[in-house]
Design goal:
Helix content is about 50%, strand content about 10%. With about 90 residues, the protein is mainly α.
Length: about 90
Amino acid sequence: MVADRDTATLVGGTVVGRRAGDMLGVLNLAVHARIPMPELQSMMYGFPAPYSAIGEALGAYGRGVTTVMAPDYEGLQALDEVAAAAAS
């Protein structure tokens, strides 16, 4: 998962493994709707089920586990620019 530090929203994510496609719908909705990370963390993720991996990753984020992949990342503005370019 990739979160924007400034807005505390999910801006991307990927899943690898069996039934990974099922979980992408949840991540896609969270990115598209710009659901705040604290709200995503408060949701219930069934266990044992593939969706529990999303809950575990969000829990790690809540405990401060973060990795900066690109220090010059421009946040949601870059995502909006890509969406605008695709729409035109």
